[in-house]
Amino acid sequence: MVNYKYERCSVCFKSLTNESAHTLTTCNHQYHKKCITNWISGGAEHCPRCRTHATLIDIKALHVEQADNDDGDSDNELTQSTSNMTIQDPALQDNKINVIIRDLTNHKISINDLAITTKIVEVKRRIEQFNGVHMDQQRLTYRGIPLENDRTLKDYDIVESHKIIDALLRWEGGKM
Protein backbone atom coordinates (compact mmCIF):
# COMPACT_ATOMS: atom_id res chain seq x y z
CA MET A 1 0.00 0.00 0.00
CA VAL A 2 1.27 3.49 -0.81
CA ASN A 3 1.13 6.05 1.98
CA TYR A 4 1.34 9.58 0.67
CA LYS A 5 1.00 12.61 2.91
CA TYR A 6 -0.40 15.55 0.97
CA GLU A 7 0.48 19.15 1.65
CA ARG A 8 -2.12 21.63 2.83
CA CYS A 9 -3.65 23.89 0.23
CA SER A 10 -1.69 27.17 0.41
CA VAL A 11 -4.77 29.20 -0.48
CA CYS A 12 -7.36 27.89 2.03
CA PHE A 13 -4.92 25.98 4.31
CA LYS A 14 -7.20 22.93 4.46
CA SER A 15 -5.96 19.37 4.04
CA LEU A 16 -5.81 17.81 0.59
CA THR A 17 -6.97 14.31 -0.24
CA ASN A 18 -6.30 11.97 -3.13
CA GLU A 19 -9.58 13.13 -4.70
CA SER A 20 -9.02 16.86 -4.20
CA ALA A 21 -5.29 17.31 -4.83
CA HIS A 22 -4.23 19.31 -7.88
CA THR A 23 -0.79 20.60 -8.73
CA LEU A 24 0.80 23.32 -10.83
CA THR A 25 3.01 21.74 -13.48
CA THR A 26 5.40 24.70 -13.25
CA CYS A 27 6.41 24.14 -9.60
CA ASN A 28 4.51 21.06 -8.31
CA HIS A 29 2.90 22.85 -5.37
CA GLN A 30 -0.45 21.35 -4.38
CA TYR A 31 -3.86 23.01 -4.07
CA HIS A 32 -7.58 22.35 -4.27
CA LYS A 33 -8.64 22.86 -7.88
CA LYS A 34 -11.21 25.52 -6.95
CA CYS A 35 -8.71 27.42 -4.78
CA ILE A 36 -5.92 27.65 -7.36
CA THR A 37 -8.37 28.29 -10.21
CA ASN A 38 -9.89 31.23 -8.33
CA TRP A 39 -6.40 32.49 -7.40
CA ILE A 40 -5.18 32.55 -11.00
CA SER A 41 -8.53 33.71 -12.46
CA GLY A 42 -8.52 36.57 -9.94
CA GLY A 43 -5.53 38.13 -11.66
CA ALA A 44 -2.57 36.48 -9.94
CA GLU A 45 -0.56 34.78 -12.66
CA HIS A 46 1.79 33.03 -10.26
CA CYS A 47 1.97 30.26 -7.68
CA PRO A 48 0.92 31.62 -4.25
CA ARG A 49 3.85 29.86 -2.57
CA CYS A 50 6.84 30.43 -4.83
CA ARG A 51 5.56 33.08 -7.29
CA THR A 52 6.53 30.96 -10.31
CA HIS A 53 4.52 32.07 -13.34
CA ALA A 54 1.40 29.90 -13.75
CA THR A 55 -1.75 29.87 -15.87
CA LEU A 56 -4.98 27.89 -15.77
CA ILE A 57 -3.56 25.30 -18.18
CA ASP A 58 -0.80 24.54 -15.66
CA ILE A 59 -3.34 23.10 -13.17
CA LYS A 60 -3.38 19.30 -13.27
CA ALA A 61 -4.94 16.63 -11.06
CA LEU A 62 -2.40 14.89 -8.84
CA HIS A 63 -2.68 11.10 -8.95
CA VAL A 64 -0.91 8.73 -6.60
CA GLU A 65 -1.43 5.09 -7.45
CA GLN A 66 -0.69 1.96 -5.48
CA ALA A 67 2.06 -0.10 -7.04
CA ASP A 68 1.24 -3.67 -8.04
CA ASN A 69 3.35 -6.46 -6.58
CA ASP A 70 4.37 -8.18 -9.80
CA ASP A 71 6.61 -11.25 -9.70
CA GLY A 72 8.09 -10.35 -13.09
CA ASP A 73 9.97 -7.29 -11.82
CA SER A 74 13.31 -6.72 -13.44
CA ASP A 75 16.41 -5.65 -11.55
CA ASN A 76 16.26 -2.09 -12.85
CA GLU A 77 12.76 -1.37 -11.56
CA LEU A 78 11.69 -0.29 -8.12
CA THR A 79 10.53 -3.46 -6.36
CA GLN A 80 9.53 -2.07 -2.98
CA SER A 81 5.77 -1.50 -3.04
CA THR A 82 5.44 0.78 -0.04
CA SER A 83 6.68 4.24 0.65
CA ASN A 84 6.04 7.08 3.02
CA MET A 85 6.59 10.43 1.39
CA THR A 86 6.35 13.77 3.16
CA ILE A 87 6.77 17.06 1.36
CA GLN A 88 7.84 19.91 3.59
CA ASP A 89 7.70 23.59 2.88
CA PRO A 90 11.29 24.35 1.72
CA ALA A 91 11.27 27.62 3.64
CA LEU A 92 10.86 25.77 6.94
CA GLN A 93 14.05 23.81 6.38
CA ASP A 94 16.09 27.01 6.75
CA ASN A 95 14.01 28.41 9.65
CA LYS A 96 12.38 30.79 7.20
CA ILE A 97 8.66 31.49 6.93
CA ASN A 98 6.33 32.65 4.19
CA VAL A 99 3.61 35.20 4.99
CA ILE A 100 0.57 36.16 2.97
CA ILE A 101 -0.27 39.83 2.47
CA ARG A 102 -3.97 40.49 1.88
CA ASP A 103 -5.36 43.84 0.75
CA LEU A 104 -8.90 45.23 1.10
CA THR A 105 -9.98 43.67 -2.21
CA ASN A 106 -8.85 40.24 -0.91
CA HIS A 107 -5.96 40.18 -3.39
CA LYS A 108 -3.15 38.13 -1.84
CA ILE A 109 0.57 37.99 -2.40
CA SER A 110 3.08 35.70 -0.76
CA ILE A 111 6.28 37.09 0.74
CA ASN A 112 8.72 34.19 0.95
CA ASP A 113 11.88 33.35 2.87
CA LEU A 114 11.47 35.67 5.84
CA ALA A 115 13.23 35.09 9.14
CA ILE A 116 11.08 35.53 12.22
CA THR A 117 13.52 38.30 13.21
CA THR A 118 12.69 40.26 10.03
CA LYS A 119 11.59 43.80 10.82
CA ILE A 120 8.21 45.03 9.58
CA VAL A 121 9.94 47.74 7.54
CA GLU A 122 11.62 44.96 5.51
CA VAL A 123 8.24 43.29 4.89
CA LYS A 124 6.95 46.65 3.61
CA ARG A 125 10.00 46.97 1.36
CA ARG A 126 9.28 43.55 -0.13
CA ILE A 127 5.64 44.56 -0.72
CA GLU A 128 6.86 47.73 -2.44
CA GLN A 129 9.10 45.63 -4.70
CA PHE A 130 6.12 43.48 -5.66
CA ASN A 131 3.38 46.07 -6.27
CA GLY A 132 5.12 49.45 -6.35
CA VAL A 133 3.23 50.92 -3.38
CA HIS A 134 5.72 53.02 -1.39
CA MET A 135 6.45 51.87 2.16
CA ASP A 136 5.16 55.14 3.65
CA GLN A 137 1.73 54.48 2.13
CA GLN A 138 1.40 50.99 3.64
CA ARG A 139 -0.28 50.20 6.93
CA LEU A 140 0.03 46.56 7.99
CA THR A 141 -2.06 44.85 10.65
CA TYR A 142 -2.08 41.35 12.11
CA ARG A 143 -5.14 40.20 14.03
CA GLY A 144 -6.29 43.82 14.13
CA ILE A 145 -3.04 45.09 15.67
CA PRO A 146 -1.06 47.72 13.71
CA LEU A 147 2.49 46.56 12.94
CA GLU A 148 5.27 49.03 13.76
CA ASN A 149 8.25 49.38 11.41
CA ASP A 150 10.97 48.83 14.02
CA ARG A 151 9.45 45.63 15.46
CA THR A 152 9.96 42.08 14.17
CA LEU A 153 7.57 39.38 12.99
CA LYS A 154 8.36 37.45 16.17
CA ASP A 155 7.24 40.43 18.28
CA TYR A 156 3.73 39.88 16.87
CA ASP A 157 3.88 36.06 17.20
CA ILE A 158 4.21 35.63 13.44
CA VAL A 159 6.50 32.62 13.70
CA GLU A 160 4.86 30.10 11.34
CA SER A 161 4.35 30.10 7.58
CA HIS A 162 1.12 31.14 5.91
CA LYS A 163 0.04 33.73 8.49
CA ILE A 164 -2.09 36.45 6.89
CA ILE A 165 -1.10 40.09 7.33
CA ASP A 166 -3.65 42.68 6.22
CA ALA A 167 -2.41 45.63 4.17
CA LEU A 168 -4.13 48.99 4.00
CA LEU A 169 -3.04 51.82 1.74
CA ARG A 170 -2.86 55.38 3.02
CA TRP A 171 -3.31 57.98 0.33
CA GLU A 172 -2.12 61.55 0.69
CA GLY A 173 -4.99 64.03 0.81
CA GLY A 174 -5.32 66.63 -1.91
CA LYS A 175 -6.33 70.27 -1.89
CA MET A 176 -9.77 71.29 -3.02
Which descriptors apply to this entry?
3-stranded antiparallel sheet, 2 domains, zinc-finger, 176 residues, 24% strand, Ubiquitin-like (UB roll), single chain, Ubiquitin-like domain-containing protein, 14% helix, zinc ion binding, Ubiquitin-like_domsf, metal-binding, Herpes Virus-1, 5-stranded mixed sheet, alpha+beta
Query: What is the H/E string?
Result: EEEHEEHEEHEEE
Q: Considering DSSP H and I runs of 4 or more, what fraction of the residues is helical?
A: 10-25%
Whole-number tally of structural domains: 2
Q: What does the overall shape look like? A: globular
> Kindly, what is the distance between the CA atoms of the first and last residues, rounded to a whole number of angstroms?
72 Å
Strand content range: 15-25%
Uncertain segments: 72-93
What does the average pLDDT come to?
A: 78
InterPro entries: Ubiquitin-like_dom, Ubiquitin-like_domsf, Znf_C3HC4_RING-type, Znf_RING, Znf_RING/FYVE/PHD
Domain Ubiquitin-like: 97-173
Keywords: Metal-binding, Zinc, Zinc-finger
GO molecular function: ubiquitin protein ligase activity; zinc ion binding
Write up this protein.
Keywords: Metal-binding, Zinc, Zinc-finger. It comes from Meloidogyne enterolobii (Root-knot nematode worm). One of its GO terms (molecular function) is zinc ion binding. With 176 residues, the protein is an alpha+beta fold. The protein has 2 domains: 1-87, 2-Layer Sandwich (Herpes Virus-1), CATH 3.30.40; 91-169, Phosphatidylinositol 3-kinase Catalytic Subunit, Chain A, domain 1 (Ubiquitin-like (UB roll), Roll), CATH 3.10.20. Helices cover 14% and strands 24% of the residues. The chain has 3 helices and 10 strands. The protein has helices at 33-41, 90-93, 120-131; strands at 3-5, 21-24, 30-32, 59-61, 84-86, 97-102, 108-114, 138-142, 145-146, 163-169. The strands form 3 sheets. Strands 7-6-10-8-9 form a 5-stranded mixed β-sheet, with helices on one face. It is globular, with a radius of gyration of 20 Å. The termini are far apart. The model is unreliable at 72-93 (pLDDT under 50).
